[in-house]
């Protein structure tokens, strides 16, 4: 049995090798950049107007209107002192323009422009290179591509990006009692649901599974199922069959498939019988079958490794501290990740902490960490991971 910190350290210390691929911009969200990006040109590439209004030459209160520049126009108007042109947001500002005045602060009579106030030098002109200059580093290697990153990369004219590949993930669920939703079931059977939580959590963080298999509690079937799953994945996530019962065959089947155990059993609630192993460059998590145990272990242990394997700089969910709303004492006998709700900056530990209880987790939005035997009074700070 290892502690939570030891288990996380073992995962974090794994040597990994990353692969890369070219992704169209459209599909690059959530990937980490494989290489540093250098600006191929200034952004913006030319001085342009921040407003619909008038580009002015010199600082006056009256100007002669001599033309118009719209967004996308490439014509150059040679302005002289006291002259102005009609201009629109994003349009190239004439070289000699001193400022742009928004149209709400102007009036026009015939071809004379009158300003309500004196202009300031550079006012409403977005300067060439104001955001990036040619040759400047746009993003470092490993930068995580979020929507604004994609906007910036698009504005640089890049249609595809070299990114770190994401791991290929297979899921196995185990249990004779499990029936696929939608199928008839008999007394003693239950509907399989952990795989939906796992695949949902994968999707929540931009991952997809490659293959999902349901295996009976049978040693040979488990061994063969694991062998097949390992033929096509970087990370194998197994649910159930990892405890000490007579029908728990996962651990032995992993051994017989050449998977080396890195840890088995973590002093925590839920998810005590969590297993982590490795076969060359493949990683295996066997998550305890209780629904809340398997999903909690996913957020706390699986996600950080998936992030690392995707080349992210920051791995796993961030821990925040919130004051607790009602007193709480952890009498579960193990350090605990508790189903909790963070509302208006306070955290509430929810009813329904059993490892088989998933409703409380579904209604909440956080996992609150409370140490074994720890007593929390109103307002004490609690470490929380936000899960939705
Ligand atoms: N003698 C002991 N028994 C148990 C121990 C122990 O230390 N000694 N640990 C308990 C803890 S803690 C957990 S957690 C569970 C983990 O057991 P397994 O990982 O072997 O999981 P299963 O026995 O296969 O299933 C547990 C529970 O979860 C339900 N389940 C399993 N898979 C699914 C699924 N895909 N969808 C929905 N529900 C699922 C299953 O029906 C069981 O009720 O072991 C305790 N026992
Ligand atoms: O550790 Mo188990 O996950 O309490 O039910």
Question: How would you describe what is shown here?
Answer:
The chain has 388 residues and is of the alpha+beta class. It has 4 domains: 4-17 and 166-309, MoaB/Mog-like domain (Molybdenum Cofactor Biosythetic Enzyme, Chain A), CATH 3.40.980; 20-43 and 130-164, Molybdopterin biosynthesis moea protein, domain 2, CATH 3.90.105; 48-126, Molybdopterin biosynthesis moeA protein, domain 3, CATH 2.170.190; 319-386, Beta Barrel (Beta-clip). It is 19% helix and 30% strand. The chain is built from 7 helices and 27 strands. The chain has helices spanning 4-12, 147-155, 194-204, 219-230, 250-256, 291-309, 359-363; strands at 20-24, 37-38, 48-49, 53-56, 62-69, 83-87, 99-102, 106-109, 112-115, 125-126, 137-139, 160-164, 169-174, 178-179, 190-191, 209-215, 235-239, 260-264, 275-279, 282-287, 319-323, 328-329, 336-343, 346-349, 366-370, 375-376, 381-386. A 6-stranded mixed β-sheet has the order 7-4-6-5-9-8, with no helix packed on it. The chain has a 6-stranded mixed β-sheet with strand order 16-13-17-20-19-18, sandwiched between helices. A 5-stranded antiparallel β-sheet has the order 21-27-25-23-24. Strand 23 and strand 24 (346-349) form a beta hairpin. Helix 4 crosses helix 5 (250-256). The longest helix is centred in the C-terminal third of the chain and has 19 residues, at 291-309. The radius of gyration is 30 Å and the shape is elongated. The model has no long low-confidence stretch (mean pLDDT 97). The protein binds ligand LQZAQKY5 and molybdate ion. Molybdate ion binds at residues 269-272, 288, 290, 293, 355.
